[in-house]
Amino acid sequence: MDTSALRLDAGPIDYALVALYFVFVLGIGYVARRQVSTSLDFFLSGRSLPAWVTGLAFIAANLGAVEIMGMSANGAQFGMATMHYFWIGAVPAMLFLGVVMMPFYYGSGVRSVPEFMRRRFGTGAHLVNAISFAVAQVLIAGVNLYLLATIVNVILGWPIWVSTIAAAVIVLSYTALGGLSAAIYNEVLQFFVIVAALTPLTIIALHKIGGWDGLVDKVKASPGGEENLQSWPGTGLTGIESPFLSVVGIVFGLGFVLSFGYWTTNFVEVQRAMASKSISSARRSPIIGAFPKMFIPFIVVIPGVIAAIIIPEMAKYKAAGGPDGSEVKYNYAILYLIRDLLPNGMLGIAIAGLLASFMAGMAANISAFNTVFSYDLWEQYVVKDREDGYYLKVGRVMTVVATVIAIGTAAIASGYSNLMDYLQTLFGFFNAPLFATFILGMFWKRMSASAGWAGLVSGTAAAVTVALLSKDSLGDLSTGTLNLSGQGASFAAAGAAFVVDILVSVVVTMFTKAREPSELRGLVYSLTPKEDFEDEESRSLPWYQAPVKLAGIGLVLVIALNVIFH
After folding, report:
1. Which DSSP string do the residues of 494-524 spell out, in sequence order?
2. What pTM does this model have?
3. What does the domain layout of the chain look like in residue ranges?
4. Are 203 and 58 in contact (CB under 8 A)?
5. Do the Cβ atoms of 442 and 525 come closer than 8 Å?
6. How far is residue 560's CA from residue 87's CA, in Å, rounded to a whole number?
7. 214-251 burial, b for 16+ CB within 10 Å, e for fewer?
8. Could you report the per-residue pLDDT of 9-34, keeping only the tens digit for each?
9. Confidence class of residue 1 from pLDDT cuts 50, 70 and 90?
10. Domain 12-40+64-565 carries which CATH code?
11. Which of 153, 289, 292, 477 is the most buried (most CB within 10 A)?
């Protein structure tokens, strides 16, 4: 593929800035290695980190391929409707995680989300969850690795295979050395590098297009027109012609099932909060992360919208309605802006920011994978009751294995012109049914262990079936029987997974035996005393650090943003 048009004219100062960034990244891994003496240190940072660190890591772990390339691509293709992924599809679920679910995760003392599943539903649901999660992580790590390698190839000219291996080795080095602590502290660094890279790019792009008023006028006159300035009903984003059904798809499919499924049960995110030093810190982590999450679309989505107007190749591509025989892709929107707008020096910061975003995403996937594999699969089902050092070694070995597998799965991601389609399809398969099982089991004490695994399997099967019947969701495997495509298909698949999981779980529960209530303390809301959700720190926090009040402020802010930019 000829991407020479995207080649950046990087100079010595740019390479020096990128090299300095990598020195810091590897240095953090080396320093963190000194703090790793047990498996808990390696997999959960010894549960010792402050809330502000885990809060920033919580959001940075998600600031990878989906956020930077996927959301800017969505901005270029669909416009302001992309804001739903943040204000409907993220922040409410993050606040819910902090207020309602983190006390269960942290207070129960589990080391992973699948382990919580085992305690609530037994080994059947646990095994299904652990295996599906592990598979999902190496697939999504492949997305981040593919994009990272592509960026290096496009902007610096390195061959794809060299870029892939080099990127994998760097992530592997610091993750294998320092475990979760190295990943988390690097994610905090990467958060600030990403913001430092994308904020000037957004300001320069807005200035070039004539400020906000200029952006509005030019979007109205461009392909997509005024619809690209409106977040509702989002028919272009969902691919659903009916405005009413499009809103239902966004609110239920994205805002409830996919969003809550991802943010409240995805161990990649929850792991960061579980590394906190107390229950109150763990609860504040996702809530603290929700505040920057609200404003990230202004430096990710808006540049994508602008790129589709001021970049000639992108404007032509959008006017043609998609593939036009050129090598242009919506995924490259942010790269075109960097190429055309940033001078040397700032170019180096931008390159480092892009590399940081993909490394943060991949490291998060790898660190979550090695924890679940070591604790939930190897220790639980293969080699039990060995000394702690043995499982620490298993974790480091699996870090290497996962990285190698990710190099292979990166090839799968290369077939999608808009990676959000691919990723939302994966989330529909793995996260939507898991959320249904979790939320039902957490609030319905009668739900049985058999219902746990039966609901998961049937919900996943329902999502796969809808994807197969939709257009292009699974490439050549799709039949096109349903008139759904892209992200609308993933919303429908997630909705189907949730509904089928709930129905099957209820039916199976009616015919199977429930567990004794005494066994479900800390696992079911109505059977857990309120004091189990608090610690000494919780009772002495000022109002602006109290999780519930902080979440209330966040909810008011996100509602205001939805109203202002409707």
Report:
1. HHHHHHHHHHHHHHHHHTSPPPPGGG-TTTS
2. 0.86
3. 12-40+64-565
4. no
5. yes
6. 10
7. ebeebbeebebeebbbbbbbbbbbbbbeeeeebbbbbb
8. 777 888 888 888 888 888 888 888 88
9. very low
10. 1.20.1730.10
11. 289
